[in-house]
Design goal:
181 residues; mainly alpha; two-stranded antiparallel ribbon; 6 helices; 70% helix; transmembrane helix
């Protein structure tokens, strides 16, 4: 595909998605542009609805802790959405500067897919042994099947340490970017 070094090749985050999709020669990267964009949009919607729900549930209560809870929701959303968008934005930026490299595109797309998987695995690791939902006590499902050893390993991770799973994937993404640039 033809690369362009025009600074106005795309405008902002939303314009980077079609640009990266058109500019890359890697099918894996094209797939990640679509999947990563959809997952990032879904995560953003979920967090916006969570903040709205939190605000609705706490209307009339004084600020303080609740204000910091809202800010924490936004921080967590940024820590998840940022790495979801990073491969697409980095590929678009690299192609805009005229430095196309199929290996770089493929490696970043693979690390992006690994981050998507790590977010799910982090959610599994953060599941408490039992919790109350709508007045009922619910216990997490037992690990069985082909992935039982992986699920057992994830269940063994302490809940406060569960963000380390996607955190490690984000660090790997950064290392991949540095290695292939």
């Amino acid at each position: 595909m033809s690369d362009t070094t025009n600074e106005a090749a795309y405008d902002g985050v939303l314009g980077a998605f079609p640009y990266a999709f058109r500019a890359t020669d890697s099918r894996l990267c094209r797939a990640y542009v679509v999947v990563g964009g959809l997952v990032a949009a879904l995560v953003a919607i979920v967090f916006v609805l969570a903040v709205i729900s939190l605000i609705g549930a706490t209307v009339g209560t004084p600020g303080g802790f609740l204000t910091s809870a809202r800010a924490f929701y936004v921080l967590v959303a940024l820590l998840i959405v940022g790495p979801l968008l990073a491969p697409t934005l980095l590929v678009a930026r690299r192609h805009r500067r005229g430095k196309s490299d199929r290996r770089y595109d493929r490696a970043l797309a693979a690390s992006g897919f690994a981050f998507v998987l790590s977010v799910y695995l982090g959610l599994v690791a953060s599941m408490p042994p039992s919790f109350v939902l709508d007045g009922e006590t619910v216990t997490r499902p037992a690990a069985d099947g082909v992935f039982a050893p992986l699920v057992e390993f994830l269940y063994a991770i302490p809940e406060p340490a569960s963000p380390a799973v996607p955190g490690l994937a984000a660090v790997i993404m950064l290392v991949v970017h540095r290695r292939y640039r």
